[in-house]
Amino acid sequence: MMLVTLQRIVEGVNKAPDFNMALSTMVGQVREALETDSCSVFLADNDQKQFVMAASDGLRAEDGNPVRVDFGEGIISLAAQREEPLNIADASMHPANKKLSDTNESIYRGLLAAPIIHRRKVLGIVVVHQSVARHFSREEEAFIVTLAAQLAAVIAHADAKGLLVSEHSPWIHSLRGLPGSPGVAVGEAYVSRPEARLDEVTPRRSDKPIHEIRKFRQAVARTRADLKELSRRMAGQVPDDTLAIFDVYQGMLDAASMGDAVENMIKEGWRAQTALKYVVEQFVAQFEALEDSYLRERATDVRDIGQRVLLHLQNRQRRRKPLPDTFILIADEVTASMLAELPRDQIAGIISLNGSSNSHAAIMARSMNIPAVLGVDDIELHFFSDRQLAVDGYTGEIYIDPPAQVLTQFHQLAEEEQELRDIVTEHSHLPAETQDGERISLHLNLGLDVTHDYLKTLNIDGVGLYRSEIPFMMRDQLPTEDEQTEMYQEVLEQFPDQPVVMRTLDVGGDKPLPYFPLKEDNPFLGWRGIRLTLDHPEIFLIQIRAMLRASIGKSNLRILLPMITSTSEVDEASRLIKQAYFEVAEEQGCEVGVNLFQPQLGVMIEVPAAIYQLPAMASKVDFFSVGSNDLTQYLLAVDRNNRRVASLYDAYHPAVLASLDEIARRCEEIGKPVSVCGELAGDPGGALLLVAMGYRQLSMNSYNVDRVRWILRNVRSSTLNVMLAKALQARNPDQIRKMIAEKMESIGLGGFVRAGK
After folding, report:
1. Domain GAF: where (predicted)?
2. Residue 28 within any structural domain of the chain
3. Which residues contact 593 (CB under 8 A, 6 or more apart)?
4. Residues 351 and 473 reside in one and the same domain
5. I need a labelling partner for 738 at 20 to 30 A (CA). Which of 305, 635, 680, 755 fits?
6. Do residues 181 and 147 both lie within one domain?
7. Residue 614 CB: number of other CB atoms within 10 A?
8. How many angstroms separate the CA atoms of 627 and 380, rounded?
9. Is 677 a catalytic residue?
10. How far does Cα 217 stand from its chain's mean position?
11. Which entry of 360, 590, 653, 667 is annotated as an active-site residue?
12. Are 483 and 607 contained in the same domain?
């Protein structure tokens, strides 16, 4: 019975439109449920260093002002300090008791106080009083402790939404999201919502499949025309690599991707809208289940393109409310097409409630030099309506209706940001080398359309990682060898004189293929990467044959094996690669070593076990490549997509840096080249530490290339060695970040880790 009461109380707080009213109702319900004399909720005001009574039924101040208790004083503070409940028979006799002046507290004796804790932070205290001197029962104590635990998330979300901030609050209200694109911006909020939503489509059947297919094809044709127009509008405003995003969108509409699947479902008797909803939502669910953050963000693209087709199926006309002169664009999911539709010179900043740094919105924002904040937890869109906002894309901070002095400061910082971008661009043609002449190779991570000429203008040394998964995932069957050959040719031909590292198919339990369903309890430790492809040599051989056929007449192909844990996996993969090599040479009439070269073979170091297999693998491979994202995840035993533990995922963790340092030293000892292709390589501070460790090849997204180049050109190896020594002695990631920030400030590079120049 008590559990049912508790659930009802917490649900009432969750659903209430007014948070303060909800708390007031809750304390009354708790007092009634426990048949006690008073129930109160105190919330922590960390700025004033006080606990402030937010709601009470039974405890009241004589003057009507909020009851306040200084941190460190009284039983309330004692419960917070000890982070455990206090059940006291007579509070008036307790040594920690401090009488609350000008209140009716003196009429109470028995007290039970339970801290409200969210992610290790005390947010407040639930206090119940009774007039008789007795301990509360075990059942009553369990009830209050459970209530406090459930209130923690509710209060944390209310704090994020600004519901705890009153007009009397002395502090500036802010939200915290994830940094998506560096820079600062100020503007009026402009909330954007999709005009057609797949989740609002009601499934319906149709007995006119030909009619429905015609409607669907017309909608696809109109969507294609829209995308061409958006790409045309963006041409000249953004780098050509950004325009490649619209080619990816076009590819999603192809028959082999989405079209055939929708039409097949229509033939089974469903309306076009229903078939579209079903197929797109299947793709979306498939991408959202992925562990690779880059690939997972393609879910947003699939949903966006599906809803654009739906808009035409519903024959809706686009309606847009008037735009402010300068605005911060806010949406549940900011998409590439949404950005392209709005005037670039009026978008000051972006807030996407969902998404990560790998979303196309983030990629576009960075290429357009628009500050962006992503992944703002549990905030509804309507909260931002009619607000003035200041956005910090370095920290992920969003200031709500900030005062004039904050706005002035942000405008000044924005001007300095532009000056810094201009300097970086001016030096993009120079080599990446330190001031004392240590040369670093900068490579690209690729996974999108790669047929654009912009790649030839980038000052890079090759492709450090080409993800081959996307073509496999956007089809309802395995791509043929010919289809794969064509795709790989496009990549290799873009870099005829530079190495292109192609990672073999990295799918599995956490990256399911629609035509290869898998269900595993722990996909991160399951059947994925090389484990799956070696179990299915027919899939592996077709891909390797396609890569080799694409490389005929070229010598730039490198093959990279993912998820390697043992030398036996390398041996088996090598055997299959040799088999494919001689098959292709014979079938295509190639001369071995003349117009068909044996590709260099590399292994990804992402499973910690591989670190201790380096000497054993050295004679079997030509190079190593560190996947710092997965290595961090496996070393720290953290699923970074799990919100409860995502904060523990940190590539600056001392254990991660020590492992990276050990890998670099071991590879030097055995004489094998090693690169890093994770996010750390494109991070300003991370790149400096990696170079100090001895890494001479860093692979990153195109946005980071020129920034990392400029940073490296402004440091000496001696400076980097000092930074690395301090980092390896640090006890936690915060110490390392602080050290990097201070060092970069001291050498004039502070603008790469915080707002301003």
Report:
1. 18-165
2. yes
3. none
4. no
5. 635
6. no
7. 20
8. 36
9. yes
10. 34
11. 360
12. yes
Q: Are 649 and 632 in contact (CB under 8 A)?
A: yes
Question: What's the whole-number mean pLDDT along residues 502-517?
Answer: 67
Helix/strand/coil (H/E/C) assignment for every residue in 98-142: CCCCCECHHHCCEEEEEEEEECCEEEEEEEEEECCCCCCCHHHHH
Per-residue model confidence (pLDDT) at position 657: 96
Q: Which amino acid is at 213?
A: I
- CB burial of residue 664 (10 Å; 0-12, 13-18, 19+): buried
The CB density around residue 21, as the number of other CB atoms within 10 Å, is: 12
Q: What's the average model confidence in pLDDT over 151-168? A: 59
Q: Which residues contact 217 (CB under 8 A, 6 or more apart)?
A: none
- At 659, the pLDDT band (50, 70, 90 cuts) reads very high
Which pTM does this prediction carry? 0.63
Asked whether residue 279 falls in the same domain as residue 370, the answer is no
DSSP one-letter code for 22: H
What tokens does 355 get? 């998404």
User: Tokens for 83?
Assistant: 């982070």
Residue 557 shares a structural domain with residue 442: yes
Give the count of domains, the chain: 4
- Write down the residue that tokens 């100020």 correspond to: 186
Partners of 329 in the beta sheet? 190, 350
Mean pLDDT to the nearest integer, 54-61 = 86
Contact status, residue 375 vs residue 184, Cβ threshold 8 Å: no
Q: Is the pLDDT reported for residue 359 higher than 90?
A: no
| Helices within 59-164 (DSSP H only) | 74-82, 138-160
Which among 290, 314, 338 is the end of a domain? Answer: 314
Q: What is the domain extent for residue 137?
A: 1-161
Residue 382 bears catalytic tag: no
